[in-house]
Amino acid sequence: MKNFRENEIIKLTVSQFAKLHNVNKRTLHYYDEIGIFSPDYKGENGYRYYDYMQGVDFEYIKMLKELNMGLDEIKRYIDNPNEEDFKEIAEVKIKEIDQEIRTLNRRREVLEDKLNKLNKCDDLRKKNSVKVIECEEQKFFYTPFKFEDDDLKQLISHIKDVWTVDEYCKGIGSFISVDKIQRGEFEEYDGLFIEMLDDMESKNTKNTIIKPKGKYICAYHMGDWDTLPDFYDEIVEYAEENNLTLVGYSFEIGMNDFAISDMEDYITQIMIRVEENNINSVK
């Protein structure tokens, strides 16, 4: 059996082995130098060769490295492989992989949300849009904030103090009461909000606000924020013409703030809950 194995040995140079396993030759030289992975054979010409079958061991080392194990950790394990250490490594890395999957899924959700918003914007560029739609209940985290001073640095500083990047990555909106809208008082909004993602609710004790289930005026405004008050006049007029009462808050969020260079192209989504007026009179 030994003679058969020796006859079947396929010897590979460093360059050949590196190409086969898609790795830099310098990496192989370094692994050899620190004793993690070395060629099995030395030829009569003085050159060292890898056995083709060493590729299995090398791919295993690559896997451990890709799991963010340090070279010292890898060397300690391959110098003394045992069941208990492997179980410990596997359990830790499975938890890390699960966390990475959750992170990647959230990033995917954020990208899909932004892509959907941009696709929606393509249909809204011709003119402002106002209509009534049905909405499910939605929960937001919120923070009170006054916009009186129009201080952008203060706004950014406040956001970073109350939320993490992971929390506000889908976007930050603002809300203002219907009472203020009807009085034409747009100088002071009631606060800022962010969407509560699925894995946030059980882990967070921050302020929450509920956008109730029901009918909503859904309006899209294109242009600078300074022109929003005039657009709200259109919304109020639309509500009156359709026998609707505005209730609660108006929730505003940018649709394309991450993909424009000119505020004239900025599109704001406005959502205000409405109730239908009883227009039947008693005779």
Helical residue percent band = 40-55%
Number of domains: 2
- Under CATH, the topology of the largest domain can be stated as Multidrug-efflux Transporter 1 Regulator Bmrr, Chain A
Q: Secondary-structure element order, as H and E?
A: HEHHEEHHHEEHHEHEEEHEE
Query: What does the largest sheet look like?
Result: 8 strands, antiparallel
- Per CATH, the superfamily of the largest domain is Regulatory factor, effector binding domain
The overall average pLDDT, rounded, is: 86
The span between the termini is: 107 Å
| Principal-axes shape call | elongated
> Which residue ranges are poorly predicted, with pLDDT under 50 across at least 5 consecutive positions?
1-6
Which percent range describes the beta-strand content?
Answer: 15-25%
Number of continuous helical runs: 10
CATH class of the largest domain: Alpha Beta
Strand arrangement, largest sheet?
A: 4-9-11-10-6-7-5-8
Can you count the beta strands?
11
CATH-level-2 architecture of the largest domain: Alpha-Beta Barrel
**Secondary structure category:** alpha+beta
Q: How many whole angstroms does the radius of gyration measure?
A: 31 Å
Q: In summary, what is this structure?
A:
The protein is an alpha+beta fold and 283 residues long. It is built from ten helices and eleven strands.
Structure characterization notes:
The chain is α+β, with helices and mostly antiparallel strands and 283 residues long. The protein has helices at 2-8, 14-20, 25-34, 54-66, 71-79, 83-122, 152-162, 165-168, 178-183, 228-241, and strands spanning 11-12, 41-42, 48-51, 129-135, 138-143, 172-177, 191-195, 208-211, 214-222, 244-254, 267-276. The chain has two domains: 11-80, Multidrug-efflux Transporter Regulator, Chain: A, Domain 2 (Orthogonal Bundle), CATH 1.10.1660; 128-276, Multidrug-efflux Transporter 1 Regulator Bmrr, Chain A (Alpha-Beta Barrel). It contains ten helices and eleven strands. The strands form two sheets. The chain has an eight-stranded antiparallel β-sheet. The chain has a three-stranded antiparallel β-sheet with strand order 1-3-2. A hairpin with a 5-residue loop joins β2 and β3. The radius of gyration is 31 Å and the shape is elongated. Mean pLDDT is 86; it is low at 1-6. This is Transcriptional regulator, MerR family. Residues 87-121 form a coiled coil.
